[in-house]
């Protein structure tokens, strides 16, 4: 993991605050003199009260002096609480901005990177910088303000402490150094166990999310998987609690040591000041003034140590976040090449393996798809069909070889640049909690009503819309809105067809979107797609060979390689693997 260091990360956060919230930046520095002045006034008020009584000061001037000090203290307390509240509120705003930025980066990262286990783990660790115990993105303003207050308070009060007894400075500094070095130990220990247990966090998040996901609720209940979820969660949570308890124990030991030093400090301070009173070197008024000064000085030193520890720990969390941002920003860059104007697709010696894997999923693929040709890519599950589609769409990048669209190498384009030329429906389709119209027209900035009505009619989705209470303005995903509806599987397919037709992209891809339907329904839908998308390059993916007989050419993939290609008739006449698979599958449909 790339480490930037505390100072660089601190500067990064302060720069972010200065650029995004100037008021928050000013509040950090505004609170420092207020926080230093307050303990001085708290110590000075009882001293003034006692000195006035001892000196028998004239009543009116005495009361006026006490009133002015009390008013100054009250104003200081009010200002301090106001600034603290503003810092807290503004800090939450800053955390919200980072949270938004995290999701923005995660959504825009190259699709291929999301397949890596390290990506999910990196995302989980990044969350710690936003929502963890030390959410540094939200607490940085508070930590900075406390650090500056402690540092400047120590400088301001040091001459007063030296005046009382120099040895107190030594004791207080020993306490500070102990806390400081123990804080370094805690940070290093935290980093070590975080790295060791990042897989545990990923498993916990996975189980927590899946257990309450409506999509899986029926399976969980039908097959009594709730016990498994509970036991799995309990197992991983106990594992996490074990290392959290270890860290908590180390923190407790640090707090205990700090408490012992406070006890020694206060005991020595009381002993020395009481001795000074009995020897007549100071009076009661000076005693009540100096003791809170010593306490404040010591508290600031402890606070300084605490803020440094929090900055170090927070810096570790921020490294995870910034590394995640760097990973997301390291997308394939555009070389400024003009977009293809023709849409024939050519793959030359293409091989592919997933990130963090040594196994080739596709091996030396050579394939040429002509513009407006209807191609079927078939094979058993796991043969590499979807991986091939991801490569063609520039969602994955070849490990070896090249892919050309309209004679242009896809390596010259960013992922986003080429996506507009594709219209695709995948096996698992995301239905957002939006209106039907917004879902269908999602690919364009503005809605074209004529185009929308044609897409709805051609897809066969018009009847469904007319039966809904709000027609095309009906919201989907019932779990998010009371007035929303859920569509059936077939209706969802019609919705997706309408979206593809509205997009009107030159290359159409259907990656087994009908796998959950029966073979006859799948065949009908594929043929309907074919009729509605004439004059387009179309690629149909299926493991059911009967659904794609209408295609101009069929490509059979097995174990990551193209083993046969041709029309349905030529492949059947050849009597090879395709014919064998087709005949086996047909027995399930005909019973012969």
UniProtKB/TrEMBL annotation:
PROSITE patterns from the UniProt entry: ABC_TM1F, ABC_TRANSPORTER_2
Location of this chain's protein in the cell: Cell membrane
Stored Gene3D superfamilies: ABC transporter type 1, transmembrane domain, P-loop containing nucleotide triphosphate hydrolases
Molecular function as annotated in GO: ABC-type oligopeptide transporter activity; ATP binding; ATP hydrolysis activity
Keywords, sorted A to Z: ATP-binding, Membrane, Nucleotide-binding, Transmembrane, Transmembrane helix
Membrane topology: Multi-pass membrane protein
Keyword Calcium: no
Sequence ranges assigned to domain ABC transporter in this UniProt record: 345-584
Keyword Transmembrane recorded: yes
One Pfam family of this chain: ABC_tran
Residue intervals of the ABC transmembrane type-1 domain: 135-313
GO cellular component, one term: plasma membrane
Residues that span the membrane, as ranges: 23-42, 62-87, 143-162, 168-189, 252-272, 284-302
Protein name per Swiss-Prot or TrEMBL: ABC transporter domain-containing protein
Source organism: Treponema denticola H-22
């Amino acid at each position: 993991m790339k480490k930037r260091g505390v100072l660089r990360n601190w500067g990064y956060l302060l720069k972010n605050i200065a650029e995004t919230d100037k008021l928050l930046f000013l509040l950090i520095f505004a609170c420092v003199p207020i926080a230093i002045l307050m303990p001085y006034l708290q110590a000075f008020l009882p001293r003034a009260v006692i000195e006035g009584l001892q000196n028998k000061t004239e009543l009116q001037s005495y009361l006026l002096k006490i009133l002015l000090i009390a008013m100054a203290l009250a104003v200081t307390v009010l200002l301090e609480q106001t600034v603290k509240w503003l810092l807290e509120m503004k800090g939450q705003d800053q955390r919200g901005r980072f949270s938004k930025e995290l999701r923005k980066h995660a959504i825009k990262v190259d699709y291929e990177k999301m397949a890596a286990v390290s990506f999910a783990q990196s995302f989980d660790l990044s969350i710690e910088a936003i929502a963890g115990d030390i959410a540094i993105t939200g607490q940085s303003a508070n930590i900075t303000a406390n650090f500056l207050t402690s540092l400047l308070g120590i400088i301001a009060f040091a001459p007063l402490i030296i005046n009382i007894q120099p040895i107190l400075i030594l004791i207080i500094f020993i306490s500070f150094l102990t806390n400081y070095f123990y804080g370094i130990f805690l940070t290093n220990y935290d980093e070590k166990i975080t790295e060791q247990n990042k897989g545990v966090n990923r498993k916990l998040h996975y189980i927590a999310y899946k257990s309450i996901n409506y999509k899986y609720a029926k399976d969980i209940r039908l097959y009594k998987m709730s016990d498994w979820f509970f036991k799995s969660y309990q197992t991983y949570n106990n594992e996490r609690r074990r290392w959290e308890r270890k860290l908590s124990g180390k923190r407790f030991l640090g707090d205990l040591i700090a408490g012992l030093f406070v006890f020694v400090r206060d005991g020595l301070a009381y002993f020395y000041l009481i001795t000074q009173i009995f020897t007549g070197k100071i009076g009661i008024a000076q005693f009540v003034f100096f003791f809170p000064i010593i306490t404040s000085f010591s508290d600031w030193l402890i606070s300084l140590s605490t803020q440094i520890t929090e900055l170090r720990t927070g810096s570790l969390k921020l490294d995870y976040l910034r590394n995640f941002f760097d990973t997301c920003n390291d997308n394939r860059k555009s070389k400024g090449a003009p977009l293809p104007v023709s849409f024939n697709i050519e793959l030359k010696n293409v091989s592919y393996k997933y990130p963090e894997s040594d196994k080739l999923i596709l091996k030396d693929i050579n394939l040429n798809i002509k513009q407006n040709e209807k191609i079927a890519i078939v094979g058993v599950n796991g043969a590499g069909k979807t991986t091939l589609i991801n490569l063609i769409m520039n969602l994955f990048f070849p490990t070896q070889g090249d892919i050309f669209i309209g004679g242009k190498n896809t390596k010259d384009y960013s992922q986003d640049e080429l996506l507009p030329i594709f219209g695709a429906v995948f096996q698992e389709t995301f239905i957002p909690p939006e209106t039907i119209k917004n879902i269908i027209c999602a690919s364009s900035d503005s809605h074209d009503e004529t185009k929308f009505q044609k897409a709805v009619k051609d897809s066969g989705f018009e009847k469904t819309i007319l039966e809904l209470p709000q027609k095309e303005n009906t919201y989907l995903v019932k779990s998010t809105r009371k007035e929303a509806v859920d569509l059936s599987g077939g209706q969802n397919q019609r919705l997706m067809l309408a979206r593809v037709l509205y997009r009107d992209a030159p290359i159409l891809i259907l990656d087994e979107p009908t796998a959950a339907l029966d073979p006859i329904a799948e065949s009908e839908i594929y043929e309907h797609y074919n009729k509605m998308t004439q004059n387009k390059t179309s690629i149909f993916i299926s493991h059911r060979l009967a659904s794609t007989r209408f295609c101009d050419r069929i490509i059979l993939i097995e174990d990551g390689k193209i083993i046969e290609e041709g029309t349905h008739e030529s492949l059947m006449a050849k009597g090879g693997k395709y014919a064998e698979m087709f005949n086996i599958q047909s027995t399930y449909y005909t019973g012969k």
